[in-house]
Amino acid sequence: MDALIGEWLNLVIRWTHVITGIAWIGSSFYFNWLDSKLRVPSPARGKVEGEAWLVHSGGFYRVEKIDVAPQEIPAELHWFKWEAAFTWISGFLLLILLYHLGQGAFLQNAPDGFSDLLGIVGLLAGLSIAWAIYDFTWKSPLGEQPLVAGGLLFVLLIAAAWCLSKYMTGQAAYLHVGAMLGTIMTANVWMRIIPAQRALVAAAKAGTKPDARLGKEAKKRSIHNNYMTLPVVFIMLSTHFASTWGHQWNWAILAALMLIGAAVRHAFNLRNRGRNALWILPLAALAMVVLYYLVRSS
Asked: How far from the centroid of its chain's Cα atoms is residue 174's Cα?
């Protein structure tokens, strides 16, 4: 590929990835914040579960959340799904452009006969397996124990990072872990959240009682996505920080930074619910300092 064409493809796809990623993460932050600020209206109004008054850009807004589904679906209903789709598509194309068009140049020791096609097939297989393990775990009885299920999946993810670091450059390993998380997040939207929402809309249009369980399951997956945002954002930025992915313990550094990112997200989620959780932020800052000295001394 011509170098200039490659550079401009990189520019366009990366720009698209950042723009759509901002839109997706922004909506995730907003709706999780909004859920924590909803209050039962007084006096009660029909099926309104909660409401919030907002002031922004010179105007006042009143946002209501309906219990399960409204009696009648409005003619214009806004969905939040394309942000996730285009973030994943652009990220996938960017990963192929940078790491899978070079006959294994991203591998530390590319095997004889390795081709771009084989690398892309392996990438798709790996992403599919990551989603299948995640989804199976949360649909299994283990999913009723969030700390156990989350801990197990985190260990498996870091094990994957360790394996990748043995065969790929550290930079590529980080981004492939990010691709796993991004795939899980996108699949959550398109394979779990959106189908649940469609079922609720269909039930409301048909005049039947919607299944509240679908809404709860969709919300659980949405919360999972919310906690993955900051780790994924770090991975998106990680190419600029060779002291992380270039270190001999790069997989362990990644694990620590992902935990710190999730902890910061947890602090803000708790604060949004009115709980005093800002003490987590100094601990996260201290963890960064400790991690710096560990990296420096090893």
From this structure: 15
The SS3 assignment for 9 reads helix
Domain ranges of the chain: 3-297
Cα(44)–Cα(29) distance, integer angstroms:
27
pLDDT for 212 equals 80
pTM, 2 dp = 0.92
SS3 content of the chain, % helix, strand, coil (to 5): 70, 5, 20
Distance between CA 24 and CA 86 in Å, rounded? 9
Residues 152-173: tens digit of each pLDDT: 999 999 999 999 999 999 999 9
The Cα 55–Cα 167 span in angstroms is 52
For the record, the structure tokens of 14 come out as 């990366």
Indicate the SS3 state at residue 110. coil
pLDDT of 204? 82
Q: First CA to last CA across the chain, in angstroms?
A: 39
Closest by CA to 222, choosing from 34, 14, 15, is 34
Q: At what angle do helices 146-167 and 250-272 cross, to 10 degrees?
A: 150
Q: Where would I find the beta strands (DSSP E) of 41-159?
A: 48-56, 59-66
3-state secondary structure (DSSP) of residue 278: coil
Query: What is d(CA 173, CA 165) in angstroms, rounded to the nearest whole number?
Result: 5
More confident residue, 218 or 208: 218
Q: What is the pLDDT of residues 7-53, one digit of tens each?
A: 899 999 999 999 999 999 999 999 999 999 999 988 888 888 899 99
Choose among 188, 156, 160: nearest CA to 174.
160
Q: Rounded distance, CA 35 to CA 31, Å?
A: 6
Q: Which of 121, 124, 29 is nearest to 80 (CA)?
A: 29
55-71 confidence digits (pLDDT tens): 998 899 999 998 777 87
